[in-house]
Amino acid sequence: MLTVATIEESISIIEEKFKDIELGIEEIDIVNAYGKVIAEDIISDENVPSFNRSTVDGYAVRSRDTFGASEGVPSLFSVAGEVKMGEPAEMNVGYGEAVYVPTGGMVPSNADSVVMIEYVEAVALNEIMVVRPLAPLENMVIVGEDVKIGEIIFPKGHVVKPQDMGILAALGIVKLKVFREIRIGIISTGDEIVEPDADVRFGQIRNINSYALVGNCRKDGCTPKLYGIIKDDFSLLQKALKMASEENDIVLISGGSSVGTKDVTCDAINSLGEPGVLVHGLQIKPGKPTIIANVDNKAMFGLPGHPMAALIIYNVVVKELIYKLRKQTIKKFGIEAYFSQNYSSDHGREEYVMVGLQKKEDKYIAKPVYSKSALIVPMVRADGYVKIEANKEGILENEKVEIFLF
CA-CA distance, 240 to 2, in Å (whole number)? Predict the structure, then answer.
């Protein structure tokens, strides 16, 4: 067991010690696909579009027949027919011929461009003139331009977005295999913790973290389950941990991770199975008293009781395992911003600073939300956080930083 680990060491431990955990796979209808994680590569077995398609209302022509056309010297065409919407184009387009095609309609064979009706003038029945030249493939989409047969549309581990459901429908895919949702049990510990609807006495604190963690789990496509508040008692915590580990893939324990006389979390975890506690303490601020454990291939994380610290550890550490189980590569896209002031940090450990963002002219300004990790309201006012590396001693005013949004 590492008594104090860096974030990099903890992530390496997660990758190694939880490599054998496998999520089940289920088949679902695409109507229920939003937010699900694809369990196998989605490969197209057809072209999209499957026919040459017009992107405008106009006339399909051979582009070479329009070369040199202008308002002063237009090109003349005879109208050879019309393509109805949703019907195949069964005619060919020959020299000096044009066929009317609506937006989205099929472009006839031999035609390689579509002239918009704005550049067409009728001169007689079934005869038009075109007043500008067209380039090949202008105003049309060709077979397979969007998707080609054999193309990997979505790789394994891709999270389905609303627009993805549209392309699946376009390909005729109505069912797909996805990883089942990760089940996460949430336990709150501490003699001082009471439920939100309780009458609070001096010295007591309402259960904040459990509900904030539920929201984070759902945001990340997981299924959370609350196991209530457990007092600082070995047998009670052991029983709750056993139940939660049997019913879930990951167990989050809020509080009970600090080193103290009433800390029974490590002992309770170690009593349940091997290898037990892997890490107790991270070189990070806030969130130093963090536990990472593996009990019979079930993951357990002891999170700090302070709300801000618990939120940071969830985002920085727990998410690593969530993404790993779903075969995803973590994509942390930050927003570029400029720090509003000088900020000092302790050299030797990473620090995560919550910030609020303001738009000033054409750039974002990140202002630190000063707070002790036990406070709640600053966490609500923060838009995200900035990471200060362990080898730095802070951030300078106007320094460009990367902000990760909550």
Answer: 25
Q: Residue range 330-350: average pLDDT?
A: 89
Residue-level length of the chain:
406
**CA contacts within 13 A on the Cβ side of 344:** 1
Asked if the model's pLDDT at residue 263 lies above 70, the reply is no
The verdict on 289 and 279 lying in the same domain is yes
What's the structural domain count of the chain? Answer: 4
For residue 368 the two structure tokens come to: 């630190």
Q: Cβ distance 285 to 351 under 8 Å?
A: yes
pTM of the model: 0.83
Tens of pLDDT along 355-390? 999 999 999 999 998 766 556 777 788 999 999 999
CATH at 395: 2.40.340.10
| 169 shares a domain with 39 | yes
In a domain, 238, yes or no: yes
**Do 217 and 237 belong together in one domain?**
yes
What's the chain's average pLDDT?
A: 92
Domain hosting 118: range is 53-141
Residues 6+ apart with CB under 8 A from 294: 17, 18, 275, 276, 278, 300
Question: How far apart are the C-alpha atoms of 398 and 353, rounded to whole Å?
Answer: 16
The reported pLDDT for the residue numbered 138 is: 98
* 182 pLDDT above the threshold of 70: yes
- Among candidate residues 84, 119, 141, the one where a domain is terminated: 141
Q: Are residues 163 and 248 in the same domain?
A: no
Contact 245, 298 (CB under 8 A): yes
d(CA 193, CA 204): 6
Report DSSP letters for 180-232, one per residue.
PPPEEEEEEE-TTEE-TTSPPPTT-EE--HHHHHHHHHHHTT-EEEEEEEE-S
